[in-house]
């Protein structure tokens, strides 16, 4: 909680709203139980959940609360990468650490990422062209038809 700055939207909310956000994050109670805990009607809690400030404060709280889990999660991944019985688990843990550290993963690099982007762009252009042809077949000026109909030749076909 100390990590949320004084000027944050979360800290600008009244105490019942802040308590409701914390209880919603913990997800142990129903909305009825949360409303009762903060001494409000369930309809009031429902209204709060649609307010932009409340939504933003929930997001702030979620980020701060999750930040506290990161160091332990990284330690657990590191432990798995060194001691897991399964090599696959070790590899996945190592890839996760690399990815979270901004180094990508063992099966990713800049050239591969660039190639994937080029491929996705080419596929998008092909799909766009096909959509235009379907929508306006009269605009087709030149058409090449490729027939991929190769079959295996058997002994009886040769005679």
Sum up the structure in keywords.
159 residues; mainly alpha; Arc Repressor Mutant, subunit A; 3 domains; 65% helix
Q: Would you count the extended β strands for me?
A: 0
Can you identify the CATH class of the largest domain?
A: Mainly Alpha
Q: Please estimate the helix content.
A: 55-70%
Radius of gyration: 28 Å
**Mean model confidence by pLDDT:** 82
How much of the sequence lies in strands comes to: under 5%
Low-confidence stretches: none
Please state the structural category. mainly alpha
Which topology of the largest domain does CATH recognise? Arc Repressor Mutant, subunit A
- Element pattern in H and E: HHHHHHHHH
Number of domains as seen in the coordinates: 3
Q: Please tally the helical runs, counting DSSP H or I stretches of 4 or more residues.
A: 9
Shape: flat
How would a crystallographer describe the biggest sheet?
none
């Amino acid at each position: 909680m100390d990590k949320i700055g004084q000027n944050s939207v979360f800290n600008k909310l009244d105490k019942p709203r802040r308590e409701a956000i914390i209880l919603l994050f913990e997800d142990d109670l129903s909305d009825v139980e949360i409303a009762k805990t903060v001494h409000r009607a369930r309809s009031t809690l429902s209204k709060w959940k649609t307010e932009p400030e409340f939504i933003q404060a929930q997001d702030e709280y979620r980020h701060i609360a999750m930040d506290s889990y990161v160091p332990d999660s990284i330690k657990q991944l590191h432990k798995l990468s060194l001691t897991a019985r399964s090599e696959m688990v070790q590899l996945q843990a190592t890839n996760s650490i690399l990815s979270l550290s901004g180094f990508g993963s063992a099966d990713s690099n800049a050239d591969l990422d660039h190639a994937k982007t080029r491929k996705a762009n080419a596929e998008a252009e092909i799909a766009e062209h096909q959509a235009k042809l379907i929508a306006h077949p009269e605009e087709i000026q030149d058409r090449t038809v490729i027939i991929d109909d190769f079959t295996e030749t058997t002994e009886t076909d040769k005679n």
